[in-house]
Amino acid sequence: MDRPSAVERSLREAAPHEIFDVIRSLIEDRHGALAVDLLLADYAMTRLQPVGVLPYTRPPVPVYDSSPGRAFGSQEAHCVYDPSASTAAIYLPVSVRGDRLGILDVTLRVGQGEELDAAVLEDLQECADALAHEVVVAERDTDLFLQARRAERLTLAAEMQWQLLPGRSCARPEYSLGAQLEPAYAIFGDCFDWSASADDLYVTVSNGMGEGIDAALLTNLCVNALRNARRAGLSLSDQACLADQAVYGQHGGERYLSTLLFRFHLPTGEVEIIDAGSPRVWRVREGVVEPIELEAQMPLGMFEDTAYVPQHFRVEPGDRLLFISDGVYDALSPGGEKYSLRALASSIRSTRLLPAPQVPRVMLQELLGHRGSGPAADDSLVMCLDWHGRSSIRGR
What we know:
InterPro entries: Bact_Sigma-Reg, PPM-type-like_dom_sf, PPM-type_phosphatase-like_dom. By secondary structure, the protein is α+β, with helices and mostly antiparallel strands. It has 12 helices and 17 strands.
């Protein structure tokens, strides 16, 4: 039986707030590193924030047009050599199961004209991978890493929403998934959730009515009702019914949520979907961008004892699905012009070569270019799912 490596053991034995100090000491001892830094992606996914003794940390690094940002985007190690100083800066992705957390920045001394040994890069990446797992676990017991991700203060509603989310991306051989919310530091009603088993992937996208704390509380109630039903083994229809009853029982129809519920059958690509007055779905198949027309049913919590009936379709290997909330469609320019479907389709086409986890951030940045820098009238959500399928894996 394989035993944990020395790095994994050292991290597991460390106090949660000390795991980065431990990995830094290990890398310095193993490789004579001149500097080791951890950069975590901020909530807007536009900056890489240094982890240090708060609030006295180094300035953040932009995700765009920076060497660490290049490694973050490609999810591959990136080396920058400085011949004058005889050093190499190595930027390594810190990710766990497809969720992109940040970058491990290691500076080593190298001889004139030398390149880093492949075994050294492999060992450093293993250190970054081990650190990623421990950061996720440590966040239950320390605020250090959550604080480091903040380029500005979160509103209370945004704090509640970010704590509710499963992550911002995930991946398995059958699919790759990414999502983002804006304004990242002041969201209130939009939310997403996902969970996978051996043969099924469940995805929900919600747009709760209202603003601020009221919207966040409504979304928290709905998402936890859906999770409770899903974890009890209920069907997709029954999950929608339970959440509908929970929200109606609390608010009597005065507050409700527009929600998309999906169940993807991983072996076949069969999809079961319930459109509860929801955010809309687009598909990219063989370069063609088109909306998927669904039968809209009542939002969750609008009426008592609503019955929900699923629809079905199939995804094919190579398909891309995008789930987009009303905050995108309804965004207004400073002159009052709505974000058009043509502009949205153009944004979908322009991001077709990007991996799924990068697409939401880029699309929302393009939306910001239309809306301008003023306060948003509504929050916006984009989720992107790339379907690879099991049949294509077996056929390789």
